[in-house]
Amino acid sequence: MEPNYISIGKLVRELLTPTGLNEVLVVMVAVAIAYVCGRLMRRATERVRAASGGVSTGWQWRLMEAGAIVAPYVVAVLLIGAAREAAEALGVSDVVLVFALRLVAALGAVRLGVYAVRLLLGDGSWLAHHETRVTLLVWLALGLEVLGGFDWLERVLGQVDLLPGKSVFSLWDLLKGLVVVTAFVLAMTLLARAIERRVMAMESLAPSTRVGISKSAYFLLIGLGVLLGINSAGVDLTALTVLTGAIVFGLGFGIRDITSNFVSGFVLLMDKSIKPGDVISFHQHTGTTSDNFGWVQELRGRYVVVRDRDGVESLVPNQSLITNAVINWSYSDQRVRLRLPVMVSYEDDPEVALDLLVRATEGHPRILRDPAPVSRLISFENYGMKLEARFWIRDPMNGVNNVRSDVNRRIWRLFKDAGIKIPVAQQEVRVLEPDAVVVRPPHLGGAEDGPARG
User: Fold this and answer.
1) Residue 12 sits in which domain range?
2) Would 70 be classed as within a structural domain?
3) Which CATH number is 431's domain given?
């Protein structure tokens, strides 16, 4: 049975003949004509795009772009195919034409396939920046198949048995299995990304529900891709018993924290305790602080992305949010109460100070009128009276300290205008000379003691 590939020796012998050189000339002319046709199609497409105002996101534009991409390959295939038919009619050799026809058709198919994958991943994906390189890499692999290179590799690598015994598992089986499994996983990943974009665009679903569906579909499809890839590669699973045991052992001891984070991520998605857009803080503080204060940007399989007001994004492991206490400022109600403590002197009237605290909150656009701001006399301290202004806001995601700063600045102006003093803790220190005499009061006994010691 004649192999379905063209051997390298046969191709080289054909190239050394006058007929082979003529075939090479025909292929070069066909490629040149195809290149010119492709450039013309590209220019026509760009003119249509410019006429439409530069819009390049509709399906009509994508269809035109795909047509411009595949056009030169179609022209080259038609021209080389016509030359091959003419060679058969004249009874001359067509080995080079057949080889070129297969390569050009494979290159066109790969180019169109890579373009389709890039559309699925999006214009901002890594493939958009390496589209040409990926196309050439896949095409070279197909060219090696056309020349029969994989059959030679299979013969060489098939002699290396990795698991001596009853079952045969060669190095070729391992490489083939890895390639097939990788191909299936990539295909399932593309499908999962497409599902994720469609689900995340559904505004009728809650953000946590959308993330949960996307992540569940992702892991389900990836697992399915691995199983289908192993089955398609024809790998005997009984030969992988030792490897499977090692993986189970590693899951039990080596990557238990990673597994715990994945499970914790699904728990967060299911109970909806933390969802994208929530305002959270990580320390057990009251609502008057903004330490470790941030917004949940994204729920990932292993961690949660939290962005603070400084623009810093923290990657918090899911397990930390499950096992540690977390303040969710917007869990059921986004309204939070802020408390501003302030000290006043005992020489001032506390009633006037309490009234000024309420006045300091009036007119602020973010402070709620219902419930209304209030002021309280909290306690009598060593150096003054401790008062507190309390008010509510409904948008903690826009910041807390900025509101506190606005109110504190107005309190300072009102207190200064009213002559109310904010006392500062003071201490009196006395320094005694070494030979000082300490006089004891009469009721403690003794009129005086000797010189002070130490």
Assistant:
1) 8-157
2) yes
3) 3.30.70.100
Question: Which burial class, exposed, middle or buried, applies to 164 when counting CB atoms under 10 A from its CB (0-12, 13-18, 19+)?
Answer: exposed
How much is the pLDDT for 184?
80
> In terms of domains, do 402 and 315 share one?
no
Same domain, 18 and 125: yes
Q: Are 280 and 354 part of one and the same domain?
A: no
Residue tagged 């034409």 (tokens): 97
Q: What digits encode the pLDDT tens for the residues 393-418?
A: 988 777 788 899 999 999 999 999 99
Scan for tokens 């097939």, then name that residue.
Answer: 180
Kindly give the pairing relationship between strand 293-299 and strand 279-281. Answer: antiparallel
What's the rounded Cα separation, in Å, for the pair 104 and 431? 99
Per the CB < 8 A criterion, the answer to whether 250 and 200 are in contact is no
Task: Kindly state whether residues 320 and 426 are assigned to the same domain.
Answer: no
Dihedral (CA of 67, 70, 73, 74) sign: negative
- The answer on 362 and 318 residing in a single domain is no
Percent with pLDDT over 70 in the chain = 76
pLDDT tens digits, 184-221: 887 787 778 778 777 777 776 666 667 777 777 777 88
Domain count, the chain: 3
Are both 383 and 435 inside the same structural domain? yes
What is the value of pTM for the model shown?
A: 0.47
